[in-house]
Amino acid sequence: MILTELPRTRFATLPTPIEKAERLSEALGGPEIYVKRDDMTGRAMGGNKIRKLEYLIADALRQDADVVVTTGGPQSNCVRSTATTAKHVGLDTVAVMYGTRPDKLYGNFMMTKVLSDELVFTGVSDRSSVDRRAEEVCERLRSAGRTPYLIPRGAAISIGAVGYVNCALELMNQLMDQDIDADRLILPSGSCGTQAGLMVGAKWLQSSFRIEGILVSRPRAESIDRLVDLSRKTIETLGMDLSITEDDANTYDDYIGDGFAVPTRAGRDAFRMASKLEGLFLDPVYTSKAVAGIVDLIESGEINSDETIVYLHTGGEPLLFSLEHGMADDDFEPEKPY
Ligand SMILES: *Cc1c(COP(=O)(O)O)cnc(C)c1O
User: Fold this and answer.
1) Are strands 18-20 and 32-37 parallel, antiparallel or unpaired?
2) Is 116 a catalytic residue?
3) pLDDT per position as a tens digit, 86-112
4) pTM higher than 0.85, yes or no?
5) What span, in angstroms and rounded, lies between the C-alpha atoms of 43 and 22?
6) Which of 96, 141, 158 is nearest to 122 (CA)?
7) CA 318, 32, 250 angle in degrees (round to 5)?
């Protein structure tokens, strides 16, 4: 077991709190709901990418890289988090983004633009267009005598997923300390690195709770393949002796709506509920859809009223300050006068 020996740059604010969502539990008629606040990992508005980057940035430094190449959309939490943490350790950042340059500065893109040393746009909306372009950018940087370190979309590679093996350990300790007997840990899943890391951690620690991902980006079959593949690679990276199969990859694909980053009505309802009842802000792309999923699983009886669940809040707050947040003015209207 080499989890503690893997190079790690400690810049996250850890452990993140675990909080009881009493009013939400009551409103939904039963199950105890806890929120693991990974929106509070720190470093320019936090979120789940910060844990992955503790290991990825350390790996970049170990390889003597002087520039990090990061990929995603202009509103990517991952690109913003990478640029923030790279700057913190003195590395340059090139952000390779799909689509065209937004003409307004808002949300994540505002922060990414300020932090990056170069912005590259692929000009097409296809998300995978950044993969090829990033390779070309790395080639160009190498020819110019630089040493680039490429972080793929979502930072979804095994070294990043290790951050969530670590989170599983942190969470298990908190649950034990607070005498919480959890049945499920539920989170939004996109590029699948977060869930893969948690799956490995839960297996390793023989957790009593199931890890369940609410899919917000990719179809189910592709997600399961990614979860199994990434978990196995993470196990290899850590030199562990564990076996992961498709049966460990629990996912729900009913809450994506019309597609990645397209807000849903149920997501807006979940956003209102979490903010009004718990003072907790959800983003429209990931966490609103995850909580909408939890609400539906409870209402449909898939989650029983006597269960205890932990919702991993993966962050994404800057998306609330994006003009594409998908909320109408009405969504912010107070429901009752005081
Ligand atoms: C990236 C992201 C996710 C998804 O994490 P993956 O590891 O890509 O599955 C969930 N929530 C937020 C806020 C994110 O930025």
Assistant:
1) antiparallel
2) no
3) 999 999 999 999 999 999 999 999 999
4) yes
5) 28
6) 96
7) 70
